[in-house]
Amino acid sequence: MAIGTGYTDRFLSEDEARGIFAEGLDTLSLKGKKVLVIIPDSTRSAPLPMCFRQLVDLMSGTVGQLDFMIALGTHRGMTDEQINHLLGITAEERAAKYSHVNVYNHDWENDVIKIGTIPSSRIRELSDGLMDQDLDVTVNKNLFGYDQLIICGPVFPHEVVGFSGGFKYLFPGVSGADVTNFTHWLGAVITLVKIIGTERTPVRAVIEEAASLVTARVPVAAFCMVVKGHDDLSGLYFGDPIYAQSAAAQLSSQLHVIWCDHPYKTVLSVMPELYDDIWTAAKGGYKVECAVADGGTVIIYAPHIDEVSYTHGALLDRIGYHVRDFFLQQEEKFADVPGGIKAHSTHLKGAGTYVDGVETPRINVYLATGISKERCGQINLGYIDPATINVEEWMQRDDPDLLVIPRAGEMLYKLNSQR
Questions:
Q1: 36, 343, 369, 373: which has the fewest Cβ within 10 Å?
Q2: What is the pTM of this model?
Q3: Residue 376 phi/psi, 5° resolution?
């Protein structure tokens, strides 16, 4: 069902990866065709420079046009300098060697069109009865100027859909806000603990339904990667996005989930610099909540971050971070807040209750970042001065109740009792 292979005990060489790229592309009729490759932005770990070089090399001279679109979702656009770094090329190389290849950002506010509607009856079915509404499907209009779409991105445990990758690079990767807000809030209502690290979820089903409206107009294939560290390639699979993503998710479940014998009272999530705001760095909370004890603490340590969200900061300043039931029991009050914003809020705050106007989170979340104590208080998160934390000293502590993650955000921590 999918071309490719993966390993739990070694990495693929570049030659092995090239072989899979070549074999996959050979199954497509690309001569003279216009091809768009959809890739992640800098908030995802992947050997994109290698992928870019290989795909351009293998398709140049065959296809009529080759472009790359960065699947930003609702992240802010990347500058030319950032794009060059993402692809591992210099400005001079881009202007000369790759002048025939266009690379551009997805613009979720200005470049989207409606391509259909998923009716409420189907939404009820896909969401197991949790939601009952028509869902407009909006996506980047530029997709339909191509003869073939190729997704190329990594697969990791994911807080909204279960495992990332595949058609998720269309929704929310290059979509409008409608499906993004709906699916994120659906995932939040189901709860992160039930969703994350689960291969088949109602959210995935909705995304695939939306994607069927795209594939009805233009064919879509996918290269799905499984990555360890920043760019070591453990697996690469090609085919229909559903099957390629499923194959990658099965390997990801073996490589990206750390099973713990007991819950931790304190977790220090050290965030790498690929996350530049709390909107993205919140994965340091998402990926560990399952392994935190009741009443425990998660500290997101990222001195380089000084913004809550470059795109949604004003709304998050207004509503703050809260448990799911805080929003569910005050739906009218927050009716004007997009579901994606509420979902991010409750995903980071974690599980908890809201009874008789009293919010009781299961865990405590602190930011040790460049965001001020005052703003942390405004958004209902704790504050720790990052200057008071010596990561190396924390890592040396002999404390069974402490977990220090030196590169947080991608590995999922769960308890053996949750298997």
A1: 373
A2: 0.92
A3: -60, -45
Query: Hey, how many other C-beta atoms are within 10 angstroms of the C-beta on 23?
Result: 12
* 279, burial (CB in 10 Å: exposed 0-12, middle 13-18, buried 19+): buried
| Calpha distance 333→416 (Å, rounded) | 39
Q: In degrees, to the nearest 5, what angle opens at C-alpha 327 toward C-alphas 290 and 170? A: 70
- Give Dmax over CA atoms of the chain in angstroms: 67
Which sign does the torsion angle of CA 287, 292, 296, 301 carry?
Answer: negative
Per-residue pLDDT tens over the stretch 246-284? 999 999 999 999 999 999 999 999 999 989 999 999 999
**Coil, helix or strand for 228?**
strand
- Per the CB < 8 A criterion, the answer to whether 347 and 287 are in contact is no
Considering only CA atoms, which of 277, 346, 344, 340 is closest in space to residue 310?
A: 277
For residue 263, CA distances in Å to 208, 341, 346 come to 35, 28, 21
Neighbours of 314 (CB within 10 A): 9
88: left (phi over 0), alpha (psi -120 to 50) or beta: left
29-35 average pLDDT score: 97
